[in-house]
């Protein structure tokens, strides 16, 4: 649980400062990697993605879930209206997919 609170604090800090990160989870994850790991931007993507645990980075999914939770609780950290609409449509499409055989 402590680790999740640490992720939450870092994601909150990024969302407050970086509007692009509010709209795009890849931008958010890059910002988090750069915050947590010196020279993350110089590392190959494959290395970051396959060795995130040994590098001390949270999983992409944990960051994405944390972003969704924070944006639900704190609307001022939400993405643009367009991104919010696109995410809502995507959620509806996923729900239909999940219910299908």
How would you explain this protein's 3D organization?
The structure is a single chain. The protein has helices spanning 2-17, 19-23, 25-36, 45-50, 60-73, 81-99. With 101 residues, it is mostly helical. The longest helix is centred in the C-terminal third of the chain and has 19 residues, at 81-99. 17% of the residues are buried.
Low-confidence stretches: none
Using DSSP, what is the number of strands?
0
Radius of gyration, in angstroms, nearest whole number: 15 Å
Which class of secondary structure composition applies to the elements?
mainly alpha
Biggest pleated sheet: none
Distance between the termini: 35 Å
What's the pLDDT, averaged over the residues? Answer: 92
Summarize the helix and strand pattern as letters. HHHHHH
Number of helices: 6
Give the proportion of residues in helices: over 70%
Determine the strand fraction and express it as a percent band: under 5%
Net shape = globular
Record keyword descriptors for this entry.
101 residues, mainly alpha, 6 helices, 71% helix, globular
